[in-house]
Design goal:
Chain A is mainly alpha-helical. Helix content of chain A is 85%, strand content 0%. In chain B, 84% of the residues lie in helices and 0% in strands. Chain B is built from eight helices and no strands. The longest helix of chain B is centred in the middle third of the chain and has 43 residues, at 58-100. Chain B starts with a helix and ends with a helix. The chains are: A mainly alpha (176), B mainly alpha (189). Chains A and B meet through helix 1, helix 2, helix 3, helix 4 and helix 5 of A and helix 1, helix 2, helix 3, helix 4 and helix 5 of B.
Chain lengths: 176, 189
């Protein structure tokens, strides 16, 4: 049953996630944390931080790790299979039809209509992360970590891996 | 030879890119168009546009499709494995190790330290999705969508899957007003 659930979660979230891998993150969180209770929000956020610190697509890393945690290597394989194959098969088999309709407003607006809702889901997750921080550590630390990481990643274009590593060291030294 | 090139192209573009699939697309383009010359820029752009009309991660769709075009089904599997496998294994090893030591005080400190950074990453993604929403729809429409989604999800606890599925059906079946819609699209794209 667990294998069926793993497959279903990653199949469903990836069929609804318009806008690439990041769009699927809040949908995955909803299923994995709220519905199935496989991990806490905290654990999910740690996995997301680690996923963002490492290179490569985010959706398959989350799928691989969560699948592995719940169902070993077979679980990881099924989660990744459910993440990758459905949309890829659609792309390969429907290439001709999609190519003809690639400028159709109907097809274009499908992605456009979904994006604001995805933004809301991501915004709620961001709020949740800051709120959880607020419960655990002082506001001064939150401001230093948040402003510092924003400045480094967005303004200085420092690799997120280095930023995550710095925050881990900061936490180990000052927040333990 | 060909399979080796496919592996190199997708392994390199995936390992050098960070920040999720969409940000690594220029690196894939560099390998596929400029280095290995499997297709020209225009064709790559078309494939990307088509990939974006389908759900799911963009990077694996691109890798899988281009791999298929160049090397058949083995090419597909090769390109996808090169894109995702190394980082999935790294992810599992690192997080499993971290979990083993999760009771140590300094490891707990680490998880506290990373949380605000996660908040920033999610806030930046939120901003990105809002910005690209405004490219496809008008400001007022986006604002309406945001308020409605927030209300449905947070106060009425409607499952987001239901909202997204309804939006997709609506987008697909709503009649297209030829004149105005085309003009709007033309201006925004």
């Amino acid at each position: 049953m667990i294998y069926l659930h793993i497959f279903w979660v990653f199949f469903m979230t990836n069929m609804l996630g318009y806008g690439g891998g990041p769009a699927t993150i809040p949908l995955i969180q909803k299923e994995v944390v709220d519905h199935y209770g496989w991990m806490t929000v905290q654990e999910f956020n740690e996995a997301f931080a680690m996923g963002n610190a490492l290179p490569g697509p985010i959706a398959t890393k989350m799928g691989g790790y969560i699948g592995f945690q719940e169902g070993g290597w077979l679980g990881a394989f099924l989660a990744v299979l459910a993440t990758v194959t459905p949309s890829l098969l659609l792309m390969i088999t429907l290439m001709g039809i999609l190519y003809k309709n690639r400028t159709s407003p109907r097809v274009k607006r499908m992605t456009a209509y979904v994006k604001p809702t995805i933004a809301v889901l991501l915004g709620v997750m961001a709020f949740q992360a800051f709120f959880d921080s607020y419960v655990q550590i002082s506001v001064v630390h939150i401001v230093i970590l948040a402003a510092g990481s924003y400045w480094l990643m967005e303004k200085r274009k420092v690799h997120p891996g280095l930023v995550v590593l710095s925050s881990l060291i900061y936490g180990a030294v000052l927040l333990s | 030879m060909k399979q080796r090139d496919i592996f190199i192209a997708f392994f390199r573009s995936s390992m050098l890119g960070y920040g999720g699939g969409p940000t690594t697309i220029p690196l894939v383009q560099k390998e596929v168009v400029e280095r290995f010359k499997w297709m020209d820029n225009e064709e790559f752009g078309d494939i990307l546009a088509i990939g974006n009309t389908l759900p799911g991660p963009i990077n694996t769709k691109m890798a899988g499709y281009i791999g298929y075009r160049i090397g058949g089904i083995p090419g597909t599997i090769n390109a996808i494995l090169a894109t995702i496998l190394p980082t999935i294994i790294l992810m599992i090893v690192l997080l499993t190790t971290l979990k083993t030591f999760k009771d140590l005080a300094w490891v707990q400190g680490m998880t506290r330290g990373v949380l605000p950074v996660v908040g920033v990453m999610l806030a930046v993604l939120t901003k990105d999705f809002l910005q690209s929403s405004v490219k496809g729809l008008r400001w007022a429409t986006v604002a309406l969508h945001v308020i409605a989604a927030l209300f449905l999800i947070e106060f009425l606890h409607v499952h987001p899957a239901i909202i997204i599925a309804s939006l997709l059906l609506f987008a697909f079946f709503k009649p297209v007003k030829k004149e105005t819609t085309n003009k709007k699209k033309g201006r925004s794209s």
